[in-house]
Amino acid sequence: MVRGGGNRPLIIDIHGHYTTAPAAHQSYRDAQLARLEDPSLPAPAPAAISDDAIRESVEHNQLKVLRERGGDFMLFSPKASGMEHHVADPAIARDWARACNDLVARVVSLFPERFAAVCQLPQTPGGGVGDAVAELRRCVTGAGFVGCNLNPDPSGGHWTSPPLTDPSWYPLYEALCELDVPAMIHVSSSCNPATHTLGAHYLNADTSVFMQLMRGDLFTRFPGLRFVIPHGGGAVPYHWGRYRGLAMRMGLPDPAEALLGNVWFDTCVYHQDGIDLLTRVVPVANLLFASEMLGAVRGADPATGVAWDDTKQYVCAAGLAADDLRQVLEGNARRVYPRLDALLTAQGR
Amino acid sequence: MVRGGGNRPLIIDIHGHYTTAPAAHQSYRDAQLARLEDPSLPAPAPAAISDDAIRESVEHNQLKVLRERGGDFMLFSPKASGMEHHVADPAIARDWARACNDLVARVVSLFPERFAAVCQLPQTPGGGVGDAVAELRRCVTGAGFVGCNLNPDPSGGHWTSPPLTDPSWYPLYEALCELDVPAMIHVSSSCNPATHTLGAHYLNADTSVFMQLMRGDLFTRFPGLRFVIPHGGGAVPYHWGRYRGLAMRMGLPDPAEALLGNVWFDTCVYHQDGIDLLTRVVPVANLLFASEMLGAVRGADPATGVAWDDTKQYVCAAGLAADDLRQVLEGNARRVYPRLDALLTAQGR
């Protein structure tokens, strides 16, 4: 498939989740959790789901919206809130991650010109990263995945893990660097009634991790490590001066210089003023187009008729120069995800 | 004292902390904590601090900066990170809050034309609000305080308390309504290594609480309750579309209509782009001028020479109409803090 329309950029949405998987997949999860409560139950097997069922689950949802909005391609990962890393059993985490990733791989195999896969890692509260490394290797080297989602808080809102700068995470970073894939920082459901999953926990995680990175020197040790902070970076770009001023107070290097060789923000910010701020504050080279549809929000702003998560409209209206816009929509994604670039190049795109 | 310069607004900074209290105050705190470890130690008494020492601690710090920047008045509360509500002993919490508040009251008594007092509440993880109500009453009715700081997470980063919409908080809200004082939502130090106090925990708390309020109907039950969410509302205004879209998805009323009769945001956002977003997204009637100096950041942006927390410069450059600017700098504060208005009116201002 060759890109149409001459010189227009390929529009790559780097943040989509399989929030619409067939119900049988959730039934498998339910059976896993039931057996955790009652070990006398039989070990469940991942759901047998037909290609048609998978096609249907995507064609009328993410793919339909992608087409309607003029998008070309989406990085697709398992439903983030469904990762449920707070379930502490390592075998269940391994089986669940494998089943979720295998399902995403099937979506990709059915629509290879529309999707590339990003994997869920089998994490648990207090668990090591060995299982995560193994699943990452399986997905990337065995099944063509181009990235992963890394949960900085497997406890689900209690924040019992050490910061991402802690050496306990290093084996995962070594694998990410070796495989040359980035990690998107993405928590899962909140188990904490004080912090709503979509309205607090996701954004708080983005904010917390940026500050963790600011205080460490992870990228000196891992210069090839690449993190994508989703949801427009949580609170960070809005408080850009706070972070720069904090760095000054704490004797740390300016984050605008120290972190932006290794950290990118996506554009999942659901109104024009937010995207305007993001594109003004963060260098264009550090922005990755994304919508997270079908994700946190549904529907359209009654005042404008624009769907909340139609971030392409906001990004295109942010006043970026044409070359800059091309970087945000396509170029940066191909640079941050070299395995995506290879896939697209092999498709002649 | 009559306002000078004819018709210019009084510039009221509603968010200042006594971060510069004389060292003897911290020694009292240290002795409290030492006795918690070793009950055989004598019960310490609050530090004996002279008027001169208090004058000096403020004159060369907050008061100096206030004057230099052309500010007129500041709402002054104890150092937020020093509240340390995670220390679970209720008697220690009561004694510490009282000592902190008494010291702030002395600052006000020395500079009544520059400061009015906002109190710390004696909260503990898992504790009831009875002590908080008692201290609030003592401060407001006995010592002329005009507001309080309410910590939604006394645990200090573990978020073990129920959301602010939980009925366990109601007795405090009844007292706030009866006394007609607002509460600023303000956490204290983070005890969680994953969430830095100034770079994550403060902002996350602002964000979390807004979502808590969105999901409840607290202001139907307490129509006179007023909350100030500091630090520009955490991540909320930057993600205004996300909140409106979430509300739509969840079948909740639009927060722009449901919450803004009872919730205000301060202007502690330390760069022009952030303030521009805040003033564009949030109605002028819901903005309260504040700097939080001397607070999270120190120094100036090397690119502009503007001190990070000189938020007056950003607010004045945000393109607000003169009447709107007057509301942000003065009018809204007098409306949200009626006891402040009474104090100023009594001073002929």
Automatic annotation (TrEMBL), chains A, B:
Domain of life the protein comes from: Bacteria
Keywords: Lyase
Residue ranges of every copy of the Amidohydrolase-related domain listed in the record: 12-338
GO CC, alphabetical: cytoplasm
Gene Ontology biological process terms in this record: secondary metabolic process
Protein name: Amidohydrolase-related domain-containing protein
GO MF term set: carboxy-lyase activity; hydrolase activity
Source organism: Streptomyces malaysiensis
Lineage: Bacteria, Bacillati, Actinomycetota, Actinomycetes, Kitasatosporales
